[in-house]
């Protein structure tokens, strides 16, 4: 499954904006090239789109790489503001509407500090979702993925094909899973040689 496909429109050699569409749930992305810009790349949100400013000399491959980098940076900056439980529940509701047809309706969604080995958990009988406080400060798309994962459990309890089909609707599932796997790998102590008995 391709990660973060970006489709570029034709551009003029001047600094005309080039609209891009991303599969990241961030809305439209507009890349503006500038001959005056030598090295720096910057990005900001403008209404319902993200504007990325790059040097005119960049190749299309570099442009796509920098767009991904800047979208991740913006998402990380935005998620540093810790959502309260009420905002987290509202976000879960929006994600359910957008990706699950509004079918997953949790009774409660909250942060917890006693989950150090799991990113989230769900009790379908109670309709409760709990997210580990360790997710706070991670990119927004990662938190959204974990929320969607737990919302999907309100509809399908296990991790069978029906469950993963629900998550296929979220375009950043694989990327978010990779991010979380990287976090786990970086926290795991390096393997020590097996002890020998002589």
TrEMBL record:
Residues 106-180 form the YgjP-like metallopeptidase domain. One of its GO terms (molecular function) is hydrolase activity. Residues 8-19 have a biased composition (Low complexity). PANTHER family: UNCHARACTERIZED PROTEIN YGJP (PTHR30399), UTP PYROPHOSPHATASE (PTHR30399:SF1). It comes from the Bacteria. Keywords: Hydrolase. It holds the Pfam family YgjP-like. Residues 1-34 are annotated as: Disordered. CDD domains: M48_yhfN_like. This is Metal-dependent hydrolase.
């Amino acid at each position: 499954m391709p990660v973060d496909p970006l489709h570029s429109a034709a551009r003029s050699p001047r600094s005309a904006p080039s609209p891009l569409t991303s599969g990241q749930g961030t809305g439209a992305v507009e890349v503006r090239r500038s001959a005056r810009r030598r090295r720096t790349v910057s990005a900001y949100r403008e209404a319902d789109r993200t504007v990325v400013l790059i040097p005119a000399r960049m190749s299309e491959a570099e442009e796509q790489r920098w767009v991904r980098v800047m979208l991740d940076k913006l998402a990380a900056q935005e998620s540093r503001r810790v959502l309260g439980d009420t905002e987290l529940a509202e976000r879960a509701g929006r994600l359910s509407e957008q990706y699950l047809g509004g079918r997953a309706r949790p009774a409660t969604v909250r942060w917890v500090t006693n989950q150090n080995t799991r990113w989230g958990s769900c009790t379908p009988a109670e309709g409760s979702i709990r997210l580990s406080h360790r997710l706070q400060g991670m990119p927004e798309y990662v938190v959204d993925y974990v929320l969607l994962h737990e919302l999907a459990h309100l509809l399908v309890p296990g991790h069978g094909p029906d469950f993963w089909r629900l998550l296929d609707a979220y375009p950043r599932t694989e990327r978010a899973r990779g991010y979380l796997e990287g976090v786990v790998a970086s926290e795991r102590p390096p393997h020590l040689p097996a002890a020998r008995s002589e």
